Amino acid sequence: MSVLRSRRHVLLPGLFALAIGANVATTVPAQAQPQGQRARTPNDTLKSVEVSPDHKVTFRIYAPKASEVSVNGDFKGGGKMTKDEQGVWSLTTGPLRPDFYTYGFNVDGVRTVDPKNAMIKQGIANVDSMLLVPGEESEFEATKDVPHGEVRQAWYRSATLGEPRRLHVYTPPGYDQGTEKYPVFYLLHGAGDDDSGWSTIGRAGFIMDNLIASGKARPMIVVMPNGSLPRPTNFPRTAPGTAPSPEARAAMEAIQNRFTDELLKDVAPFVEGHYRVLPGVENRALAGLSMGGGQTLRLITTNPDRFAYVGIWSAGLFGGNPDEWEKRNAAFLDQAKAFNGTVKLLSIRVGDGDFALAGTKNLDEVLSRHDVKHELTINDGGHTWINWRKYLSEFAPRLFR
Amino acid sequence: MSVLRSRRHVLLPGLFALAIGANVATTVPAQAQPQGQRARTPNDTLKSVEVSPDHKVTFRIYAPKASEVSVNGDFKGGGKMTKDEQGVWSLTTGPLRPDFYTYGFNVDGVRTVDPKNAMIKQGIANVDSMLLVPGEESEFEATKDVPHGEVRQAWYRSATLGEPRRLHVYTPPGYDQGTEKYPVFYLLHGAGDDDSGWSTIGRAGFIMDNLIASGKARPMIVVMPNGSLPRPTNFPRTAPGTAPSPEARAAMEAIQNRFTDELLKDVAPFVEGHYRVLPGVENRALAGLSMGGGQTLRLITTNPDRFAYVGIWSAGLFGGNPDEWEKRNAAFLDQAKAFNGTVKLLSIRVGDGDFALAGTKNLDEVLSRHDVKHELTINDGGHTWINWRKYLSEFAPRLFR
């Protein structure tokens, strides 16, 4: 009972500190963090992150005993932080383009989120801190005073996987007040993420709210399933920084085929049975980033008549051999005419600093060789959510027109 | 462009490591974490947390340079961890009662979530890791293969606060397929949390799913608003471990009064306008824990005719003077008869190890003195979610009968 007893003695101040708004440094539950009358530390009033009016970002972390601390994220200007005499490490970037960013600290080899920042992006195996640099460029993804749709967590039973699975569903403003049916857009995340990614760092709901409010996009239902499938215990491991073995690639291939079943035989029927979606291929869109782009490509090559609007982002044939891919997908490529008749938009996008650039160009070449109608757009930037949010904001307005 | 360039070079392996299921140690975005051909470390395959069949929990963190590492949470057996020759710190608890728990590490004074565990509970100023010890006792809150309702994130415009605000809403299984109306239960979180708390560590949706599936609770809508109101910049600070000043108490009082307006003038009208809720006091329940229990108490004393079922958990008159409270609430206390006629259940609960025990007993005494009909139940345990989930699972079945 010692923990309970200590709680009884130390928690009253702890809770009041919370209740009346003292700065809370701990990431440990207040009720489990004995505080007593301890001396104050710089951590009590430490602020991180801080964004200046000129869009510079200052990161701070209290680590008096650490010998090396760095901050890194999907922005320029991260790196080693400097320590002051009080044990507070800090780093200030140059002006960052207004946008959302993810980052984390590395404290003497221990990677951690920012203990002072509760904005969190969760993955299947990692957690990042998030920050917003507000400004004109990030207006499209900001939480604005416009009519908001709902982002729903729903559960369905997957026959393919034999377990209950969660997905996120965006329903447009007014969905519950009306009876009309909507087109449906299946939006896939990348490796390491789950069905929450597009609703945290992906900002999908806010991007759609803003597009719909300004009349730039049609109201639609956006379905964000979990593309990270459970792996067999004997799944071949690949060490970080090493290339996957042929066995590992084959195992990944099998998992990707399962996802095709998962989406078409489990997710889509659940969605069509539980939400007011318009029938017909012309009311169905599909897009994905990175691994989700690979899943999207596999879905349309194996089921070319299911989706009229398709986006493949930061993926292409990454890793794969184009000739081999061309052979494997001969059946699809031979149907180019039929596919071109069904698909109103096949948009392929990648950044010029994205490792998927080469694979994307390979895909473009093979599709062109077989007259598969598509667009290729190469823009600035790397393999980051900065691009994927931008792609969503430019793709959604073109859907269901 | 150095970051982008380094990305182009290092990310392919990084992404494949993710894509094909290598253990991902980092909490930093894969694309921002140069990995190159770096040497492997014990962190690559480190597992945390690990729950043994006999319900012991092992925590591990790779911190080769740290001199002191501890783990603490809302369970017994946390504390200082021990380091092995590879730089991995670990601690194994004794058998824990099957339940959900929150915890965090302290690495040389830096508090961090578990970098190896993506189960996260978010607050307004803190982030905790979560773990589940599966077993018979945690079945009531587990994700089971039963019909699931939805947990929705919705946004409304608060006139009281003059900003868009988010709330979480649980709709029961089948809500979208039917047209019937449901009773509504307003469920409030505690200090330091936001509207997501009851849906992460609170497990509200799963608890309701399981109760409804077993016929123990009526299908109902559960509304979980954000009770942590924005504070004026001149809000009096209270250092952790110190008692609040009279000014700080007064400021908190003003904020609590604003929450009464927020719930009755903004949240409830939004809910009644957007969800199929049954009208009438007999179809309205309200409960809250800790700060939310204080908000609940304030709501019913100022609006005694609005809710027929009320729960006050781990709150009571904590901190307050009973005689002073009795004076301030004379108007309410004098209406005991009318209140007793309206309210079918006023359930007051607290743990015997909870710092709110004394304040709860004070509330019980004052209410008894004025013949305000209520129940007082004191059970084991402290000021923890372990109790609050239990209270929800025992309160919900008694609603709207």
Automatic annotation (TrEMBL), chains A, B:
<dbReference type="Pfam" id="PF02922">
    <property type="entry name" value="CBM_48"/>
</dbReference>
<keyword id="KW-0732">Signal</keyword>
<dbReference type="InterPro" id="IPR004193">
    <property type="entry name" value="Glyco_hydro_13_N"/>
</dbReference>
<dbReference type="InterPro" id="IPR013783">
    <property type="entry name" value="Ig-like_fold"/>
</dbReference>
<dbReference type="InterPro" id="IPR014756">
    <property type="entry name" value="Ig_E-set"/>
</dbReference>
<dbReference type="GO" id="GO:0016747">
    <property type="term" value="F:acyltransferase activity, transferring groups other than amino-acyl groups"/>
</dbReference>
<dbReference type="GO" id="GO:0004553">
    <property type="term" value="F:hydrolase activity, hydrolyzing O-glycosyl compounds"/>
</dbReference>
<feature type="signal peptide">
    <location>
        <begin position="1"/>
        <end position="32"/>
    </location>
</feature>
<dbReference type="InterPro" id="IPR029058">
    <property type="entry name" value="AB_hydrolase_fold"/>
</dbReference>
<dbReference type="GO" id="GO:0005975">
    <property type="term" value="P:carbohydrate metabolic process"/>
</dbReference>
<dbReference type="Pfam" id="PF00756">
    <property type="entry name" value="Esterase"/>
</dbReference>
<protein>
    <submittedName>
        <fullName>Carbohydrate acetyl esterase/feruloyl esterase</fullName>
    </submittedName>
</protein>
<feature type="domain" description="Glycoside hydrolase family 13 N-terminal">
    <location>
        <begin position="52"/>
        <end position="109"/>
    </location>
</feature>
<dbReference type="InterPro" id="IPR000801">
    <property type="entry name" value="Esterase-like"/>
</dbReference>
<dbReference type="InterPro" id="IPR050583">
    <property type="entry name" value="Mycobacterial_A85_antigen"/>
</dbReference>
